[in-house]
Specification:
Length: 290
């Protein structure tokens, strides 16, 4: 539990999640630490995160989620192992990692997104340089050459999986993702890619957009049609309309297909780059769930 010795650290529960994490992250990024009392690595990571939250002097807030006491929140974020840390900004998951990283890597992670409010850069902050623009095909070729030269660097294989997905080669991206070692399976990019593949796979053999629209018009409670229509709208660059379909299912038939609407929303949030849109719909989802 937190205390007054750490003014930038607070406990996150299902009751304050919407206000203190989602809404608050519009003004100040919130680093969300998923932990449990029985987790040994959590006892190592937690104090380091609290130290950095104090050092950064309010540039970000640290929210602590006890997964045993807040199982719905852990499920909403798709937490598979602890400790897992997610950085939320503008109501959207911006980045994250799993496991108890050493302090140097924690500083490097934070420096990519925030700087201490006293103006002193965090260690490694000056090293962040925007990558040159390259096409997905160029990225795949570059990464394949890099992997051939350094086959013992699994991070390159994750980069390749992401590049293959951007190129539209879904099967190859899935194969690379499945072959990743366990320590990379919960990387933020791997989680995002997994959600992208999940959405793409849902459309295998699915009806056309027109057929799905007609089905929903004929029967508003055709949840399967709404679900697939939402996925099609997302894939075909109408994200707000797609999210609306999932929200209707969540509101009217939350338990349909083992809670598919909530899973679709979580997957969609992880794949969209529009922070304002994601923040708005994440808050609407939270208002329905809590």
């Amino acid at each position: 539990m937190t205390d007054t010795a750490h003014p930038h650290v607070f406990d996150v529960t299902e009751s304050n999640f919407e206000s203190d994490v989602l809404q608050a992250s519009i003004d100040t990024p919130v680093l969300v630490d998923f932990w449990a009392t029985w987790c040994g690595p959590c006892r190592t990571l937690g104090p380091m995160l609290e130290k950095l939250a104090t050092e950064f002097n309010g540039a970000f807030r640290l929210g602590k989620v006890d997964v045993d006491a807040n199982q719905q929140l852990a499920g909403m974020f798709g937490i598979r192992s602890i400790p897992t840390v997610m950085l939320v900004k503008d109501g959207q998951i911006l980045d994250g990692f799993a496991g108890a990283l050493p302090e140097g890597q924690l500083r490097e992670f934070l420096s990519r997104h925030v700087q201490p409010l006293d103006g002193e850069p965090a260690a490694g902050g000056d090293e962040a340089v925007a990558a040159p623009t390259e096409s997905p095909t160029e990225a795949v070729n570059r990464l394949q050459q890099a992997i051939a030269a350094a086959p013992d660097q699994p991070e390159l294989k994750l980069d390749l999986a992401v590049a293959l997905m951007r190129m539209g080669n879904v099967d190859a991206a899935q194969a690379e993702l499945d072959a990743l070692p366990a320590n990379l399976a919960t990387d933020a990019r791997a989680v995002r890619l997994r959600h992208q593949l999940e959405l793409a796979g849902a459309l295998a053999g699915a009806p056309t957009m027109e057929v799905l629209r007609d089905r929903v018009a004929a029967d508003p409670t055709d949840w399967e049609a709404r679900d697939l229509l939402g996925v099609r709208l997302l894939i075909e660059d109408e994200p707000a309309a797609g999210l609306e379909q999932f929200l209707v299912v969540l509101e009217k038939a939350r338990d349909w297909n083992d809670g598919a609407a909530k899973k679709r929303l979580i997957a969609a949030f992880a794949t969209l780059d529009d922070a304002e849109l994601v923040g708005r719909y994440r808050r609407r989802m939270a208002s329905l769930l809590f």
